[in-house]
Amino acid sequence: MRVSSWGLLVLSISLAGAAWAQGDADRVEGGAERSAEGGCRRIRARINLSDGTIAGNFGLNGSVVFTRDGQGTAPATAPATSSVFSGLLAITTAGGTLGVRETGMFSSRTNNPDGAVLASWGDSASGTGVFEGVTGDLFFAGQVVAGALLVQVTGELCRP
User: Fold this and answer.
1) Three-state SS across the chain?
2) How confident is the model at residue 135 (pLDDT cuts 50, 70, 90)?
3) Domain that holds residue 122
4) What is the pTM of this model?
């Protein structure tokens, strides 16, 4: 049997996904996630801005609230509906709250059928409960999917 390059790619992605899921399962003990070596974890989460929820690893399952406390003017070459912003993102979970200083750019892209986009980064600023003392960087990339503004969250967070 001959396997095409496409078939190998699909198989590799499937195996990587299974290994990632097993790795997360291995770190769960008694309902609480154990931190990886050095206390740091690569973050994979998704925020649904339409309903204010987050789902991901590192215990990032709950609600989100963003409070803008700074804004600026986007470059003249950016789409007319673009803005730059900074503010506090509060991620509230059953285990505690993680506060993140988020800074980025948003564009509603009026008249673009693909809808709004968001790109930003966040520095962990504070935490309570299981997030007390957590440090690290998060990166946010959002776009409209099936009518909802979904934001992919990546980066790394470290427990003390």
Assistant:
1) CCCCHHHHHHHHHHHHHHHHHHHHHHCEECCEECCCHHHEEEEEEEEECCCCEEEECCCCCEEEEEEEEEEECCCCCCCCCEEEEEEEEEEEECCEEEEEEEEEEEECCCCCCCCCEEEEEEEEEEECHHHCCCEEEEEEEEEEECCEEEEEEEEEEECC
2) very high
3) 36-158
4) 0.74
- 137, 151: one domain: yes
Cα separation, 34 vs 26, whole angstroms? 9
> CATH no. for residue 125?
2.40.350
Say yes or no: 59 and 94 in one domain.
yes
What would the pLDDT profile of 56-85 be if each residue is shown by its tens digit?
Answer: 999 999 999 999 999 999 999 998 889 999
Number of domains in the chain: 2
Mean pLDDT calculated for residue range 14-40: 44
Instruction: Read off the tokens for 159.
Output: 């427990």
pLDDT band at 21 (very low <50, low <70, confident <90, very high): very low
Residues 82 and 137 in one domain: yes
Q: Do 15 and 3 lie in a common domain?
A: yes
Contact between residue 87 and residue 78 where contact means Cβ atoms under 8 Å apart: no
When computed from its CA atoms, the radius of gyration of the chain, rounded to whole angstroms, is: 18
